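Quick one, T. Sequence first:
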Amino acid sequence: MCWAVPAKVLEVRGMTAVVDFGRGVEKEVIVAVSDIKEGDLVLVHAGAIISKVRAEEVLKSIEIYKEMAVELAVEQGVSREEAEEQVKESMREWLQSLGVGYERA
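C-alpha cells:
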C-alpha cells in the first residue's frame, strides 16, 4: 500500500523541487512527473512527487486521514466529540498552511 502525503511546490530545481508539507515543513524531493511548477499541489511518496492533484482531491484524501486520527484519539481515551473537534481544527490549520480551504464538518 502506498501512503502519499499532500504538499505544495515552493520551487522547482530541475529534477528536484522544494515542497511544503504544511506548517512550514519543507523538504527537497525528486520530481518524478512532468509539468510541475511553483504553487502546484502534489502527492509525495518516498521522497518523490508521484502526482499533481487538485485541491478537491486533497480534501477527499484528507477525509481518510481525519477518520484515522479520530479513531486513534478515541482509542487513547479521548471522547469522540472532543477528538472530532480537535482533528477538525488541526486539519483546517494544516490545509490553510497549504493554501487549501477546509470547510467540511
